[in-house]
Design a protein that fits this description.
Layout lengths: L5 H4 L26 H12 L7 E4 L6 H14 L6 E5 L9 E5 L3 H24 L2 H31 L2 E6 L2 E8 L2 E2 L2 H5 L3 H23 L1 H34 L4 H16 L1 H7 L14 H6 L4 E4 L9 E4 L4 H5 L1 E2 L2 E3 L2 E3 L5 E2 L2 H5 L3 E5 H6 L3 H11 L1 E2 L4 H4 L13 E2 L3 E6 L1 H10 L3 H4 L2 E4 L8 H18 L6 H15 L6
Parallel strand pairs: 1-16, 1-17, 8-13, 13-16
Antiparallel strand pairs: 2-3, 2-7, 4-5, 5-6, 9-12, 10-11, 14-15
Helix pairs in contact: 2-3, 4-8, 5-7, 5-8, 8-9
Length: 498
């Protein structure tokens, strides 16, 4: 056994011998030191468009691999096109399954704005159309026709009754007939004082007129029903005229988009089917502390657009780092609101996850944090294998759903996933998860050390200069740089390496 002296165990740096007196003498660089193989693996993974070529980056966190990867992905993403805008819309045929629609970057926000204008105008213009003089006159004309028919029947019956010596008198329950003498309705005593033949004649006349009255009234329910249908048709025509005019503008913009045109047709049908709710929302509502009036905004909310991914300001493919990769933060979630004490949800309560935001680009996750989150790892694997994102909640996966929920249409997924993890975790996942190798076919092995060589010493000085510049620190002189290099050798426990 050979005894070593402290000088043999310690590597003494002398950066001044390389012509560097301080960090001010070198230019800052962003390139990592001696990570060529890892960078080549990243480039290979990014360039592969086939499924399963996701990347596992292994190595010590001290290599700063996360920032190296984010910088590399950022440069790649800047050269690509911005991803599509993603919207969820009401499914008027099946509200439990909201419809997913994608638009070219920036057009999703335009569509949302146009639908907001449609709703705002509909709230104002539909009630105004029913208060217009034209509608009021048409409605009164229908009612007047029915009333004139009633008046004509009443006049004819009164004339027939007079010819038989009777008067037709109104009562709270309808009309009755009574005998008349000298232009006046007979009192009971006067009627009883008549002869049997006269009383029988009056009774026979009353019976005949009552039967004729019943015959006339028998058709009145049908007339009233027809009046209601005519009034309903008038309301429908009036509202249809307004709604079609309001939808003509969005239809003009999306006439070549069959999916949006079908949605606008559904909007028209739903809007016309809710005229009573629209008109009710424009009238004062009586308050009741036990049975609150329904919120009129709920009806109009179904015509709004839930823009979950807005790429209008994106300059390239997204690069997302999710520091808390829980199930909901990855695949999205359904929020709830309380109505009458019960939690309810709809398409407007859908919230995106990291997979939605990173679609068309890159998603970076910490592997250890990921596997610690319940259900997150399995949900992520399903999304990668199925190439689509389905919004799931912990309560649904555990069959603990406490309210009527939704099944939103899944989003097609095109994302490159990068996991940051240690070497032991990488081997554990390969050994225990049969799906791992199929999903992560590329490995970027970040070296934990470099050789003590002049080239690497100069690269370290440049790296320190970069930190000084970014953090706005004072420059390090040659002696300070030497101490940092000696510390780096101590960290790797090898006097010939850093």
């Amino acid at each position: 056994m050979t005894e070593l002296s402290p000088d043999q165990l310690t590597k003494v740096a002398d950066i001044a011998s390389l012509g560097i007196q301080s960090t001010a003498d070198v230019s800052p660089v962003d390139n990592p030191i001696d990570q060529l193989r890892a960078l080549e693996a990243i480039s290979f993974s990014v360039g592969m468009t086939y499924g399963g070529y996701n990347l596992y980056a292994l190595g010590s966190p001290k290599t700063d691999k996360r920032n190296i990867i984010l910088d590399s992905l950022g440069a790649e993403g800047a050269s690509r096109e911005a991803p599509s805008d993603i919207c969820y819309l009401e499914n008027f045929n099946d509200p439990g399954r909201p419809v997913l629609v994608d638009f070219p970057s920036g057009e999703g926000r335009q569509f949302k704005t146009r639908m907001q204008e449609f709703v705002a105008n509909a709230r104002e213009m539909i009630p105004a159309a029913f208060q217009s003089e034209e509608f009021q006159q048409a409605s009164q004309a229908l009612t007047l026709t029915f009333q004139q028919s009633q008046t004509k029947d009443a006049t004819e019956l009164e004339a027939e009754a007079r010819e038989m010596g009777l008067a037709m008198l109104p009562t709270p329950n309808g009309f009755v007939f009574a005998p008349v003498a000298d232009g006046k309705v007979m009192e009971q005593d006067e009627f009883l004082s008549l002869s049997d033949a006269d009383r029988q004649r009056y009774q026979q006349a009353i019976s005949v007129m009552t039967e004729r009255l019943v015959e006339r009234l028998r058709d009145y329910p049908a007339y009233e029903q027809q009046l209601l249908e005519d009034q309903r048709a008038l309301r429908h025509r009036t509202a249809e005229h307004v709604v079609k005019r309001l939808l003509s503008r969005p239809r003009m913009f999306y006439e070549k988009n069959d999916e949006i045109m079908a949605y606008l047709d559904g909007c028209e049908e739903a809007m016309l089917g809710g005229i009573d709710k629209i008109l009710g929302s424009s009238r004062p509502q009586a308050t009741n502390m036990f049975f609150p009036a329904p919120n009129p905004d709920v009806f109009f909310d179904q015509f709004q657009v839930n823009l979950i991914v807005d790429s209008s300001r994106a300059t390239g493919a997204p690069v997302i780092y999710e520091s808390n990769p829980s199930l909901e933060n990855l695949v999205g979630k359904l929020e709830h609101r309380i109505e009458f004490g019960n939690p309810v949800t709809d398409f407007s309560q859908i919230r995106p996850g990291a997979l939605h935001r990173a679609n068309g680009g890159f998603l970076v996750l910490d592997a250890e944090r990921l596997i610690q989150k319940p259900f997150a790892w399995e949900a992520l694997k399903r999304a990668l294998s199925d190439r689509q994102v389905r919004i799931e909640s912990v309560s649904q996966l555990m069959n603990l759903t406490y309210s009527v929920s939704l099944d939103p249409e899944p989003m097609p997924l095109d994302v490159k996933l990068i996991l940051l993890g240690s070497r032991p975790l990488y081997h554990l996942l390969r050994h225990h998860d049969p799906d791992f190798d199929d999903l992560f076919k590329v490995v970027a092995d970040f070296s934990d050390h470099v050789d003590w060589e002049d080239e690497n010493l100069q690269a370290y000085a440049a790296l320190l200069a970069n930190i000084v510049e970014e953090e706005e620190l004072l420059h390090l002189d040659a002696g300070a740089i030497d101490k940092v290099l000696e510390f780096c050798a101590r960290e790797v426990e090898d006097r010939e390496r850093l």
